[in-house]
Structure formats: C-alpha cells, structure tokens
Task: structure prediction
Amino acid sequence: MWTFFHKLGSPKWFYDISGKWLPWFAVISALLLVLGSIWGLAFAPADYQQGNSFRIIYIHVPSAILAQSCFMMMAIAGATGLIWKMKLADMFVKAAAPVGASFTFMALLTGAVWGKPTWGTWWVWDARLTSMLILLFLYFGIMALQSAIEDAATAAKASAVLALVGMVNIPIIKYSVEWWNTLHQPATFTLTEKPAMPAEMWIPLLVMVIGFYCFFTTVILLRTRNEILVRERRTNWVKKLVTKRGAL
Amino acid sequence: MNPKRKQRLILVLFLVFGFASVVGLVLFALQENINLFYNPTQIAEGEAPEGARIRAGGMVVEGSIKRDDSSLLVNFELTDFNASIPVEYTGILPDLFREGQGIVAMGSVDASGVFQADEVLAKHDENYMPPEVQDALEKSGKTADGKDALPYSEKHTY
Result:
C-alpha cells in the first residue's frame, strides 16, 4: 500500500503505468456505455406514471453521481497535495475540475429537461437543485483559480483549499432531500434497502454508472498525462519520449 | 509521518471540520427557510405567513378535483393526512397531476381560507415501475412493498 503511494510521487512512473491502463478503460467504457444506452433507452420498460420520459435517468443519475464523486476525489487529492506535497495530486485536481464541471452541468441540464414535463417547471429553487448549482460554481471557482494563478504550486494550494472547503456541500447535496421539503424526490437507491425500482430498470442503470466511471477514468488519465508532459517538459525522460516518437 | 506533514494534516482537518460546522450551524439556523414548501398542517395552524406568497405541498385528495366546464379553473383539496386545505388554480396542470399525487402549489391564502395558486408543480416520488406491474398490483390490491393498499399509501413522499 505504502509503496504504491510512494510510487505515485513519481510522475514518470504514473505516466508509464497509466499508458498501460488507458486502452482497457477506454474499451470497457465504450462497451458499457453503448450496452447501457441501448438497453436503457430501447429495452427497459417504461414507467407507469412518467412513460418514456423517465429514461433520462440513464444519463441524469450517472452524471450526478460522477459530479459528486469527482469532487470528493479532488478534495482527497487536494489534501494529499497539501500535506505530502505530491505533484501528481496537484495535477489530478487541475485535470479533474473541468470534467467534474461537465458532469454537473449535464446532471442539471438533463434534470431540467426532465423536470419540465414531469414537474411542470424547468427549475425550482429547492435544496437539491440549488446545492447542485453551488457544486457547479465550486468547480468553476477551482477552474478560475487554476487559470488566474500562474505559479503552479500556488494555484494547486488555492484550489486544494477550495476543494476541501467545498467538500461540505457534498453531504448537503446527498441529504438535502431528507433534511428539507424539496420538489426533487428522495433517493431511489440506498445501501440498506432494496431499490424502489425493478431489476429490469436498474440493471441498465448500473451498467451506465460503471460505464460513466470508466469513461471518467479514461478522460482523467488522458488529461493528467497531458499535464505531466507539460509540467515535466524540461526533464530528460520527457525529452527522450518526445524525440523517440519523432517529434523533433 | 514527519512533524511538518503532521502539522499540515492537522491544519487541513481543522479547515474541513471548522468550515463544516460553520455551514452546519448556518443551515440549522435557516432550516425553515430552506424548505421549499409548507404542508397543509402548518398552513392550517397559521405557521405560514398570511397573505404572503408561499408554496404549499401535499397530496391531492382522491375525488376532490372539480374542473370548471367553461374555463381552466380547477378546485381540489390538498392534504398531508392530518389537515387539508382547499386550493383554487387557473391554468394548465402538469402531466403527473392526478388524484393521490403529491404536488407543490405556489400562491397565497385568501380571506376565506382558500389557497389561490398561480403555479402547480407535480412532485414525483422515488418509486419507478413498469405499467404492467402497476396493473397487477391494482388487481391484487397491494402496494409495491407487498403491503395491502391503503386509500393513500402510508409511506407518502411529498
């Protein structure tokens, strides 16, 4: 465990090993996303009240899950960067922020599209929707810090603090539907109870969630590897790598 | 862990928990204001501000919907199984609006105690099922949890 953690301190080691993982994640995510979409959109049964419009759940729920877990990962990476001064953690935070923001935006957008026919409104200022919007602004804040501060170490420190402070929003999003009266319905899936949805509906959803995680991993690996090359461009191994590929 | 890292770890933990407790206290103080709607009991007991624009949330009472023949005027009763209030609304209702459905209405209580709504939103619950299952459940008189169906589900989620 600790050796793995120490190895993460070396961007070169991570660049090499992630190059080996990358094709696997890419292929698996493509397969799962295609399978999950076709299954969810064409074969899963319609809902008794909402009809076919409920099918947006197959995009909405995975996006919302990823939006929140991406932020948690960024907070953990931010803490690691602050405490252990690990360069890779800083790069991860920088690489993940726009991806997480995209997932948050997608969750908000699909929610609005679903809300119009189901609730009768695109948007309502209830606790769940508002806390999700705050999450989007937190992502924007981290992105803004990254581009406003030129020194990479200072930018990393500032974004790590914002990620850690913003972490408080995650349990608020999760429990907003239980603590307050909201228009958004409570969670269909909980760890303790069986889902309030039959298996032929939630299995494709599970496929989509795993597919989204693999897609997220693929994108993050690509972006982090890019960031490694940019920041380590003066080191010998990057120069060697670039010349070997015939770029110079 | 060397002392410097330990110091930074403590600082990070202090930051996270300190900020979490600040936000926690703020939310606790604002508890009432964050709720999207008042339920009929609160309105009947006068907890909701009178005359002000508020939201009321609850279930549409079965058999209470009366539509006007010549306009879009609709009357129905809103309940939380404890108290119920009459609601009047003119306009187009969302697809999910039906008897026994949870809704949130925006408007104000008039002098005669009728809630004059200018916006009605349907609230969806967390249960999803195919239509065939719903038919089968209705025939057997059970709810999705396998319990006997009640006039309204006891586990209502509005």
